[in-house]
């Protein structure tokens, strides 16, 4: 349950090495979140992330989780919810892929889709069912503005995020009135390890700024959060630009 300060007391991060996920965990720990579970593929990076959060005073444990193995999700995640209630789940895993390579190697493109969409659908449904069974909690889903409209430069990644975004919105509608809150977060270009070396897009943001927006959105029980907020207006306009003109825009 949330404490007197409005912060979840327990947090599960799916994608335990995600820079946005860890930045969010740090902010929530500062607001009295006391139990954190970092789920991801076992690795030194995952253990380092857990150690860093422990230094902030939280009870932190790592959990083996593979987005590309949906058959294991129910058992792996079910065990966590069986141990105790989880107040917030942050679905933060995903891959950007390499558009040029993925167009040439369809199996690479499939991996992007399976990670960002299929894996998220599986994990999202498992967590949603567990949250509903306990009668409370928030599911925060990291989407992307790339899912708002397919661009030539990243339509494989963008299409996977479009599917995830639609899924999360529908899941939020399905859970309305159950005590479970679903929030979709749509960041723009985030300066992070994942985007290192790529040309920066306008209105670029940082993992910390996304984390701040997530915490604010939770307090307001928002259903959709744009980061930065100006992207809501920008994407509303771009969504309606005719395709022949859209192809000529520098957003490609």
From TrEMBL:
An example Gene Ontology molecular-function term: oxidoreductase activity
InterPro entries: NAD(P)-bd_dom_sf, Sc_DH/Rdtase_CS, SDR_fam
Keyword annotations: Oxidoreductase
PROSITE patterns named among the record's database cross-references: ADH_SHORT
Taxonomic superkingdom: Bacteria
Annotated EC: 1.1.1.333
PANTHER family attached to this UniProt entry: 5-KETO-D-GLUCONATE 5-REDUCTASE, DECAPRENYLPHOSPHORYL-2-KETO-BETA-D-ERYTHRO-PENTOSE REDUCTASE
Family: Belongs to the short-chain dehydrogenases/reductases (SDR) family.
Protein known as: Decaprenylphospho-beta-D-erythro-pentofuranosid-2-ulose 2-reductase
Protein species of origin: Streptomyces mutomycini
């Amino acid at each position: 349950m949330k404490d007197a300060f409005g912060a979840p007391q327990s947090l599960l991060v799916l994608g335990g090495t995600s820079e946005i996920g860890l930045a969010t965990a740090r902010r929530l720990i500062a607001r009295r979140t006391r139990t954190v579970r970092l789920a991801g593929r076992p690795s030194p990076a995952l253990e380092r992330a857990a150690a860093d959060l422990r230094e902030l005073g939280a009870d932190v444990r790592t959990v083996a989780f593979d987005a590309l193995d949906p058959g294991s999700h129910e058992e792996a995640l079910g065990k966590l919810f069986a141990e105790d209630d989880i107040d917030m789940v942050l679905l933060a895993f995903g891959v950007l892929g390499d558009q040029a390579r993925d167009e040439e190697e369809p199996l690479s493109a499939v991996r992007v889709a399976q990670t960002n969409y299929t894996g998220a659908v599986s994990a999202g449904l498992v967590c949603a069912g567990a949250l509903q069974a306990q009668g409370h909690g928030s599911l925060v889903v990291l989407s992307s503005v790339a899912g708002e409209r397919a661009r030539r430069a990243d339509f494989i990644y963008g299409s996977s995020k479009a599917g995830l975004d639609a899924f999360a919105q529908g899941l939020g509608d399905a859970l309305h009135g159950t005590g479970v809150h679903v929030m979709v977060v749509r960041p723009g270009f985030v300066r992070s390890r994942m985007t290192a070396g790529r040309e920066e897009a306008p209105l670029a943001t940082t993992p910390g700024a996304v984390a701040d927006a997530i915490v604010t959105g939770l307090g307001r029980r928002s259903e959709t959060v744009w980061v930065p907020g100006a992207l809501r207006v920008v994407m509303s306009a771009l969504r309606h630009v005719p395709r022949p003109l859209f192809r000529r825009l520098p957003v490609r």
